Backbone:
């Protein structure tokens, strides 16, 4: 590590974070998915917060806890990713000593808070399923605020000793941190004096937070399952369990990488160091990026499972008076597509009749050649639209993401490829573009 100051000091001026050791040659490319996940986290969580804020019907316990989770995810990702990207892309590896301790404090505090919020969300699901008539009475706005303060207070009490205990250590093994962000154990390992207290306290906090929270979540879901299996109707059981789907996905996405990272950090001494760093980084980045997507797709209430506002997606959110909208939407689709398709088919029937009367095969080919671009554009517009329309109304067993994936090409492909089709297949436009390109090349 040439150029780094390696000296003995109880309070060094700065630390040097080297990113992901072992894959320095490709870490600039590894940073690309990290950046994408950060953008997803910013967009998704801000959209969730905006929707919950503007829609009074979403001021319910489930969505207020989701808002807490979104704020928490924004803080975790923003306190980590910008500096990480600077390290991986621009090699801005120096970080001031106190700034490093502050980053460490924020990361561990809000990671602990995320675990606490997941417990609160499990409590919400328990009350909603086991005591549905008293749900909003038990988890009113005051109670939710108090739960939020307890989660915050617990994290502050448990994590505040981390930077205090670190300041008593001497970092005589250097100030080069083999990590992409300031993590507690990575800093402890730089100490040359006795760090038993730091290690023991870090292990105790991890076991206390994760252990108690996992037990609380497990107990909630045991009670939920007991209540659900007492319901005689299979449809009611599935509906009740369906309300927990998003929460279960988020729990697994948060705890599994976290536990794997924790165990490999302390016991997986034969695992390459860059694997530790990648796991620890994904543990911080994946939940903030994908929590909004999971809740957006799996939560029906006023959250549209699509990438744009579509008529049928909005109709599906209605609880009454949607039959007229469905019938009218079907009538418009059949009228527009049906009449236009008939008109196009008649036009080409007459074109084929006329072309086949020509005596010269070359003239026939030339005549048909003028229609190629138009036929390609027609197929490119109508086939995805027809498939999307049919799968939306008839194929109820098709997964929701298939509908969305089909719907997006219908909107995006024709505008993107229509100019290319006409530019490549229309001689006049093609020649004009070629002349323009050659003219610009000659001027340069």
Residues:
């Amino acid at each position: 590590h040439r150029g780094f100051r390696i000296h003995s000091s109880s309070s060094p001026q700065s630390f040097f974070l080297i990113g992901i050791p072992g894959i320095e040659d490709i870490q600039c490319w590894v940073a690309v998915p990290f950046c994408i996940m950060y953008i997803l986290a910013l967009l998704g969580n801000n959209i969730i917060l905006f929707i919950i804020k503007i829609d009074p019907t979403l001021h319910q316990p489930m969505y207020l806890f989701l808002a807490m989770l979104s704020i928490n995810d924004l803080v975790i990702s923003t306190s980590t990713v910008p500096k990480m990207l600077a390290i991986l892309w621009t090699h801005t590896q120096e970080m001031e000593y106190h700034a490093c301790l502050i980053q460490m404090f924020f990361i561990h505090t809000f990671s602990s808070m995320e675990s606490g919020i997941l417990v609160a969300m499990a409590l919400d699901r328990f009350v909603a399923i086991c005591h549905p008539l008293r749900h909003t009475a038990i988890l009113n706005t005051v109670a939710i605020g108090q739960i939020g303060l307890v989660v915050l207070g617990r994290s502050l009490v448990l994590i505040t000793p981390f930077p205090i205990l670190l300041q008593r250590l001497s970092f005589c093994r250097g100030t080069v941190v083999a990590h992409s962000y300031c993590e507690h154990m990575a800093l402890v390992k730089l100490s040359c004096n006795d760090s038993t207290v730091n290690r023991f306290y870090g292990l105790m906090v991890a076991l206390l937070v994760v252990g108690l929270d996992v037990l609380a979540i497990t107990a909630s879901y045991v009670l939920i399952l007991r209540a659900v299996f007492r319901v005689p109707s299979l449809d009611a059981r599935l509906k009740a369990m369906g309300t927990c789907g998003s929460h279960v996905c988020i729990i697994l996405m948060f705890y599994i990488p976290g536990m794997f990272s924790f165990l490999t950090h302390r016991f997986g001494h034969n695992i390459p160091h860059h694997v530790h760093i990648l796991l620890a980084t994904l543990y911080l980045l994946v939940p903030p990026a994908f929590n909004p997507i999971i809740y957006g797709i799996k939560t029906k209430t006023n959250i549209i499972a699509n990438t744009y506002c579509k008529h049928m997606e909005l109709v599906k959110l209605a609880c009454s008076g949607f039959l007229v909208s469905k019938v009218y939407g079907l009538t418009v689709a059949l009228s527009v597509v049906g009449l236009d398709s008939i008109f196009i088919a008649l036009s080409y029937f007459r074109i084929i009749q006329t072309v086949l009367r020509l005596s010269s095969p070359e003239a026939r080919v030339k005549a048909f050649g003028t229609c190629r671009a138009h036929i390609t554009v027609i197929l490119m517009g109508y086939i995805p639209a027809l498939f999307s329309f049919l799968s939306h109304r008839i194929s109820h067993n098709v997964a929701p993401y298939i509908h969305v994936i089909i719907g997006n090409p219908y909107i995006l492909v024709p505008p993107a490829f229509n100019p290319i089709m006409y530019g490549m297949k229309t001689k006049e436009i093609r020649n004009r573009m070629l002349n323009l390109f050659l003219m610009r090349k000659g001027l340069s």
In short: Residues 14-321 form a domain with the Rhopdopsin 7-helix transmembrane proteins fold (CATH 1.20.1070.10).
